[in-house]
What does this fold into?
Amino acid sequence: MSLAIGGWNIPGFETRVDASVKLAGGDMSGFGSFALSSDQGVKPGLITVKTKIPMLDESELAALIAKSKALDENGARVVYTITNALAEAYKIRKAKFDGEVKATELEEKRAWQVTFKLVEVQSVSEREQQQLDEQATESAEPQATTSNDDVQNKFNEVEGP
It folds into this structure.
């Protein structure tokens, strides 16, 4: 299965892509006689990639490692657009490298086994929460000034020595 990050195809052969999403919850069975759990939302999706890169393609391995270490103008890891059928099924559109990028020599195949993870950013849940926050900000009424502000303003108006 092929995977592209930021329009760049992941190199290698026998590429395997796994995707998952955690549906967070907590066990509340000790709080009563029912087997209940609390719903704590949908966490960002995770894509795990395993591929084999031939040792002759050392530059491809170096390019992958460079992409994993890339930083944006603010010093944060670069967020890439993900192109993959499985990621699309999970609705993972943007992700960044997360955790360890590991390469292991495979002597019998004269290749490196490369494993890395991509964690979703700007997930559907995050976008929904941002929209709710924006709506709440727009509909919020400004709070009245406090008495401390009134005292400070009167103090600033007084002329004195």
